[in-house]
Structures are given as structure tokens and as C-alpha cells.
Amino acid sequence: MEEVLLDLEARVREIAQQGGEFQGQVEALRKSETGSAAADVVTQADYWVQRELLQCFANTPLLGCQLVAEESSAELNPLMERFASESEFQLLIDPIDGTKRFVEGLPYFSTIVSLRHQQRCLYTFCYYPKLNWWIRLLGEESWEVSGRIPLSLPVTPRSVVYTAGQPEVDFADWQEQLGDWRWVKGDSLHPCGSKLLYLSGSVAGYASSKPNLYDGLMIYHYAKVRRQSLREQDSRGHASLDLDDWENTSRGALVRGRYLCLQGGAN
């Protein structure tokens, strides 16, 4: 299955680039009322990118995967229903990760396509069309980037970034273990957000509680491939993230658990 996605990467980048051209031409729509601006906003660009990706994947063996994608609509649902309702393989799509930034006219949004088999992350591809930068993760053995991230980002050592939630509640024990480390929402350091801050090495840690299947596991996969220090816990308190233990909510397909990555095996 990974080979299929590798063969389609050029088309995925093309779709993401074309979707990025909608920036400034489409208005923000509200798809939910969670109270989180990042979770509630959607645009026609999100729907367009997801539709194009689904049409691309539907003509391949990927049709046999269970599909978990961020958006749904009267137009998208018939396409989504063509994929397997159950499968050991799960295809994950976030057409525009960072829709709020997309609406604000910022270049820090991406398209993420992932594949997993049971508890194993097989493939993650994330492309930022306005930065023309991508990262590919394969299994737990290899990774590749298109070059240096074309941004000048603040370096804040002994800092852990997160995207949402309350770290003093979600990560209280890990906060205590790390002592005087600073826990900060990524957007407050730079509008590029937590993922790029961590991938660039600008911060030492990245934490996620109840990560979303389609956009919240990229850094988890990255840490696995890079053999970084990784603390993980499932909903039962076991020291591993159970990727099959997830639920559909108004905020997305959330894994019941949490993880913390630290650069270079730091502790």
C-alpha cells in the first residue's frame, strides 16, 4: 500500500498546490460548534482538496482501506463510502491542516496523507504548498524532507509545544518530571504552529493529548522514525498509545491517549 502512495505523491502535491490557490478567494464556513476556532472552521478549499484526493485514491488498491478523513459533505460522502468500512489498513486524510491559518492568509497550512496497519504507522506525507516543503515518513526506518524548512523560527530550548488542551491537566505528571521546562501553545511562539516548530528543531518537545488520527500522529510517527525520546500512554494507563482506541467526536477522530516527544532523545 505504501508503494501506491509513493507513486501518487506528485499528484498529491499538485492537488495541494491547486488547493492553496483558493487562499483569499473562499470564505470561512462553520462546520461545528466546539468553541475551538481551529476545529470549527472549514472552507470550500478543504472540500475541493479532499474530493480530488479521494478521486485519485479511489482508482487504486487504497480503495480496500478503511478511510478516516477530516471533512464530510453531501458531495464527499458517496466518494468516502466507496472505501472499505473495515480493514486492517487505515487511510487518513487531512486536506488542509491549518485551515484557520489558511483563512487568515498565512502560508502555514499543509495537506497530510497517512497510512497505518493496526498499531504501526506505515506512511506519512505532509506537504506545505506555500512553503514548497514536504516531509515523508516510511515505517519506522526511513524519512526524507525536501530541504530545510524555509523559515526563520525562534529557538526556545527546554520548551514543549502543544496545540490544544490544558497541559497542567493533560500532562501534569510529565510536567513535574521535566521540572522547569516551559510548556507553551505553539501559535504563541510563532504563527506556523507546533508541528513546524518541532520539526525545525526550534523547540525541545511536542505534546499531544487525544491526538486526531488524520493530523495528530505525524509528530508521533516522526519521533518513532527518528528514534527520539517518546512517552506515550493509552486510556487505560498503559505505556503505549493504542491507535485502535479512537472515537469520532465534534473535534474529529480522537485517539484516547497522549504522547510526548523530546528531541534527540532528550530527557
Structure description:
This protein has 267 residues and is an alpha+beta fold. It contains eleven helices and 15 strands. The protein starts with a helix and ends in a 5-residue tail after the last strand.
Q: Any idea what the CATH superfamily of the largest domain is called? A: Fructose-1,6-Bisphosphatase, subunit A, domain 1
For the CA atoms, what is the radius of gyration?
A: 17 Å
Instruction: State the helix count.
Output: 11
User: Secondary-structure element order, as H and E?
Assistant: HHEHEHEHEHEEEEEHHEHHEHEEEE
What's the CATH architecture of the largest domain?
2-Layer Sandwich
Could you give the count of β-strands? 15
Provide the CATH topology of the largest domain. Answer: Fructose-1,6-Bisphosphatase, Chain A, domain 1
The shape is: globular
Weakly predicted, low-confidence segments: none
How much helicity do the residues have?
25-40%
Query: Span between N and C termini?
Result: 35 Å
Which secondary-structure class do the elements indicate? alpha+beta
> Numbering strands along the chain, what is their spatial order in the largest sheet?
3-4-5-6-7-8
> How many domains, as an integer?
2
The whole-number mean of residue pLDDT values reads: 92
Strand % is: 25-35%
Keywords:
267 residues; alpha+beta; Fructose-1,6-Bisphosphatase, Chain A, domain 1; D-Maltodextrin-Binding Protein, domain 2; 2 domains; 6-stranded mixed beta sheet; 5-stranded mixed beta sheet; 11 helices; globular
Describe, in short, the structure shown.
The chain is an alpha+beta fold. The chain contains eleven helices and 15 strands.
